[in-house]
């Protein structure tokens, strides 16, 4: 299979700064040409280190980085044809917007007329024409971000690497700029690799989300797959929106197990083809928006429905839905997202006893 | 309301005024006044108004020669201390990764200042003298057949001593402005394909302009205002502007010394004005 020029493959990639602890520990990953890929994880998980190694600002301790099928380890950023957009942008403070954007062309030896022409075309693309002669300090955060994007894109790289590109912006602008990044990626048609610690940002933007923890990839896949079917507790909790339950298997029958724990009385969990025997410990996740709250009563629990009896410990209005906190798991969070209209048909209050129910098939077994 | 605002601005200015008025403005007025007085030849001042001190100064061909000699030392010292200071600051700011080591090396630069100026100059004698280390080494290596006279008590020695003394005044402000350059900016330039030379030319030098200008002001004003190094290190072979009016003072010709001092101050102000015109330090610093 021919690999596109922006196809990236990481093979056994390791990085250690001190020879003892591994910042990146044996990462293997393929990123399709033209994909929007987000590395997601808490600070210190190695995501920025991977980005910097792909960019050529950091040398891997071991492993290979293939871009377009060619091993680029040891090459300068220009030879790799990657471009990086730095956290808080790192614009040249003494150069105007135009000179910032034209910088890469200037060091490539283009004449002033040529590079200004190319820079002005790019400036128009990011809608900064009236700011072309300003210094970065005279721009707003969003405008600075557009300058950084234009500066990175002017060399027509095959991969654009973005290190926390939205973290310097305020909330409202961040959502707006998300769209701008996507638009830019579609325009350029090149691979974007975006590092972030915000799960909303990752799943909103990415074709492929890579969840990282302490130098390892925990899960990589399409946003929906990572969000809806997390592989393990870490991914489920980091992406949020899930209640994670731990329990022991009592009996197994018909592709389902009946499980229980000190806080959970018997409920059914689908086993998704995996085999367990009585006594095994398992973890599973139930989406917060899959949970239906019912008042206790004789007909409350339908067949094929799991139910947990619990007390309401908190209610938070969120606009389109209401976040109801329950004590079903003792001290661990168990939360239900109830659609706003449904909630107010029969609102529950703190202290009420309710049944948290969900269709058995919607529970998702974790590794 | 406006009165109060005026008062606050004056209050903000007051520390500077408290230093500038008694230590610069008042002495300068005294010297300026004295420069228009006449001398009785025995150290007394005759309070008249005369331009004769300035007339003597501007008609003497010696004045021009003195200024040329001083300017030569100034330019040479500025040039070498700038090159050295820039390189040292660059090394400290960009190549020393460990901040503790950086501070240690920075302090090392100040070691020469732990001894007095005079001792520092005298210590050049065993190194540069006729039978000094350098001559001996060159003789032993057979590179020269008789000791180089030019090393000590010469213009070379003056420049060496000045550079030794003043490079730190370049290092400190340049290091300071370089330390404020975000390393990611350098990385971004690298990412854009800039060579080391490009980074130096397009990023580091333009962004250290204020430090270079400040260091230049220090070096230029110190060399222009000094005579001691020239006197000692040239062995009396070179003269300087300040040296000349020091002579005037020693023969009690205060008014002509005062006139020279005023002219030198004006000349220095022009020079510093030129430096500030090339680099807008205020804008660079507040950026």
UniProtKB/TrEMBL annotation, chain A:
<protein>
    <submittedName>
        <fullName>Putative spermidine/putrescine transport system ATP-binding protein</fullName>
    </submittedName>
</protein>
<dbReference type="InterPro" id="IPR050093">
    <property type="entry name" value="ABC_SmlMolc_Importer"/>
</dbReference>
<dbReference type="InterPro" id="IPR008995">
    <property type="entry name" value="Mo/tungstate-bd_C_term_dom"/>
</dbReference>
<dbReference type="Pfam" id="PF08402">
    <property type="entry name" value="TOBE_2"/>
</dbReference>
<dbReference type="GO" id="GO:0016887">
    <property type="term" value="F:ATP hydrolysis activity"/>
</dbReference>
<dbReference type="GO" id="GO:0043190">
    <property type="term" value="C:ATP-binding cassette (ABC) transporter complex"/>
</dbReference>
<keyword id="KW-0067">ATP-binding</keyword>
<feature type="domain" description="ABC transporter">
    <location>
        <begin position="8"/>
        <end position="239"/>
    </location>
</feature>
<dbReference type="Pfam" id="PF00005">
    <property type="entry name" value="ABC_tran"/>
</dbReference>
<dbReference type="InterPro" id="IPR003439">
    <property type="entry name" value="ABC_transporter-like_ATP-bd"/>
</dbReference>
<keyword id="KW-0813">Transport</keyword>
<dbReference type="InterPro" id="IPR003593">
    <property type="entry name" value="AAA+_ATPase"/>
</dbReference>
<keyword id="KW-0547">Nucleotide-binding</keyword>
<dbReference type="InterPro" id="IPR027417">
    <property type="entry name" value="P-loop_NTPase"/>
</dbReference>
<dbReference type="GO" id="GO:0140359">
    <property type="term" value="F:ABC-type transporter activity"/>
</dbReference>
<comment type="similarity">
    <text>Belongs to the ABC transporter superfamily.</text>
</comment>
<dbReference type="GO" id="GO:0005524">
    <property type="term" value="F:ATP binding"/>
</dbReference>
<dbReference type="InterPro" id="IPR017871">
    <property type="entry name" value="ABC_transporter-like_CS"/>
</dbReference>
<dbReference type="InterPro" id="IPR013611">
    <property type="entry name" value="Transp-assoc_OB_typ2"/>
</dbReference>
From TrEMBL, chain B:
<dbReference type="Pfam" id="PF00528">
    <property type="entry name" value="BPD_transp_1"/>
</dbReference>
<feature type="transmembrane region" description="Helical">
    <location>
        <begin position="75"/>
        <end position="93"/>
    </location>
</feature>
<feature type="domain" description="ABC transmembrane type-1">
    <location>
        <begin position="67"/>
        <end position="275"/>
    </location>
</feature>
<dbReference type="GO" id="GO:0055085">
    <property type="term" value="P:transmembrane transport"/>
</dbReference>
<keyword id="KW-1133">Transmembrane helix</keyword>
<dbReference type="InterPro" id="IPR000515">
    <property type="entry name" value="MetI-like"/>
</dbReference>
<feature type="transmembrane region" description="Helical">
    <location>
        <begin position="12"/>
        <end position="37"/>
    </location>
</feature>
<feature type="transmembrane region" description="Helical">
    <location>
        <begin position="99"/>
        <end position="115"/>
    </location>
</feature>
<keyword id="KW-0812">Transmembrane</keyword>
<dbReference type="GO" id="GO:0005886">
    <property type="term" value="C:plasma membrane"/>
</dbReference>
<keyword id="KW-0813">Transport</keyword>
<feature type="transmembrane region" description="Helical">
    <location>
        <begin position="254"/>
        <end position="276"/>
    </location>
</feature>
<keyword id="KW-0472">Membrane</keyword>
<feature type="transmembrane region" description="Helical">
    <location>
        <begin position="49"/>
        <end position="68"/>
    </location>
</feature>
<protein>
    <submittedName>
        <fullName>Putative spermidine/putrescine transport system permease protein</fullName>
    </submittedName>
</protein>
<keyword id="KW-1003">Cell membrane</keyword>
<comment type="similarity">
    <text>Belongs to the binding-protein-dependent transport system permease family. CysTW subfamily.</text>
</comment>
<feature type="transmembrane region" description="Helical">
    <location>
        <begin position="211"/>
        <end position="234"/>
    </location>
</feature>
<feature type="transmembrane region" description="Helical">
    <location>
        <begin position="150"/>
        <end position="175"/>
    </location>
</feature>
<dbReference type="InterPro" id="IPR035906">
    <property type="entry name" value="MetI-like_sf"/>
</dbReference>
């Amino acid at each position: 299979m021919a690999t596109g020029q922006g196809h990236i493959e990481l093979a056994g990639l390791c990085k250690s700064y001190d020879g003892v602890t591994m910042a990146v520990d044996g990462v293997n990953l393929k990123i399709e040409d033209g994909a929007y890929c987000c590395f997601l994880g808490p600070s210190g998980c190695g995501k920025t280190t991977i980005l910097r190694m792909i960019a050529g600002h950091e040398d891997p301790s071991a492993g290979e980085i293939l871009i377009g099928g060619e091993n680029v380890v040891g090459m300068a950023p220009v030879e790799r044809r990657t471009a990086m957009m730095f956290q808080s942008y790192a614009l040249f403070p003494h150069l105007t917007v135009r000179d910032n954007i034209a910088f890469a062309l200037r060091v490539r030896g283009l004449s002033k007329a040529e590079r200004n022409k190319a820079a002005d075309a790019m400036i128009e693309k990011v809608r900064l024409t009236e700011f072309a002669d300003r210094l970065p300090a005279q721009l707003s955060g969003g405008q600075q971000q557009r300058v950084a994007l234009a500066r990175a894109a002017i060399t027509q790289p095959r991969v654009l690497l973005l290190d926390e590109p939205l973290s310097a912006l305020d909330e409202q602008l961040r959502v707006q700029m998300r769209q701008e990044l996507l638009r830019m990626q579609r325009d350029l048609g090149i691979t974007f690799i975006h590092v972030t610690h915000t799960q909303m940002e990752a799943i909103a933007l990415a074709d492929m989300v890579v969840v990282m923890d302490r130098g390892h990839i925990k899960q990589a896949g399409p946003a929906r797959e990572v969000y809806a079917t997390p592989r393990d507790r870490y991914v489920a909790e980091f992406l949020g929106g899930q209640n994670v339950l731990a329990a022991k298997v009592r009996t197994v029958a018909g592709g389902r197990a009946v499980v229980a724990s000190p806080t959970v009385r018997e409920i059914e969990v689908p086993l998704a083809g995996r085999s367990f025997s009585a006594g095994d410990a398992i973890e599973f996740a139930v989406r917060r928006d899959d949970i239906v709250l019912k008042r206790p009563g004789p007909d409350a629990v339908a067949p094929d429905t799991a139910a947990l009896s619990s007390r309401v410990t908190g209610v938070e209005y969120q606009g389109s839905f209401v976040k109801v906190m329950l004590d079903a798991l003792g001290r661990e969070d168990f939360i239900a997202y109830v659609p706003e209209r449904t909630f107010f048909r029969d609102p529950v209050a703190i202290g009420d006893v309710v049944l948290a129910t969900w269709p058995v098939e919607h529970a998702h077994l974790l590794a | 309301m406006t009165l109060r605002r005026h008062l606050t601005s004056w209050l903000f200015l007051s520390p500077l005024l408290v230093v500038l008025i008694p230590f610069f403005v008042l002495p300068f007025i005294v010297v300026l006044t004295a420069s228009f007085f006449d001398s009785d030849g025995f150290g007394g001042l005759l309070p008249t108004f005369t331009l004769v001190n300035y007339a003597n100064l501007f008609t003497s061909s010696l004045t021009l020669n003195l200024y040329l000699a001083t300017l030569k030392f100034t330019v040479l010292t500025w040039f070498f201390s700038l090159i050295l200071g820039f390189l040292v600051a660059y090394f400290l700011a960009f190549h020393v990764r460990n901040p503790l080591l950086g501070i240690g090396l920075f302090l090392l630069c100040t070691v020469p200042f732990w001894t007095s100026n005079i001792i520092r100059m005298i210590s050049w004698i065993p190194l540069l003298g006729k039978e000094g280390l350098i001559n001996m080494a060159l003789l032993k290596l057979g590179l020269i057949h008789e000791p180089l006279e030019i090393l000590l008590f010469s213009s070379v020695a003056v420049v060496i001593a000045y550079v030794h003394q003043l490079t730190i005044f370049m290092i400190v402000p340049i290091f300071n402005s370089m330390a404020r350059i975000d390393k990611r900016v350098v990385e971004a330039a690298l990412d854009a394909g800039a060579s080391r030379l490009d980074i130096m030319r397009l990023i580091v030098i333009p962004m250290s302009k204020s430090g270079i200008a400040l260091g230049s002001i220090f070096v230029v004003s110190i060399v222009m205002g000094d005579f001691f190094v020239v006197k000692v290190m040239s062995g009396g072979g070179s003269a300087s502007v300040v040296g000349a009016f020091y002579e005037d003072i020693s023969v009690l010709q205060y008014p002509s010394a005062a006139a020279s001092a005023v002219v030198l101050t004006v000349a220095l102000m022009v020079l510093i004005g030129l430096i500030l015109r090339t680099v807008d330090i205020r804008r660079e610093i507040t950026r």
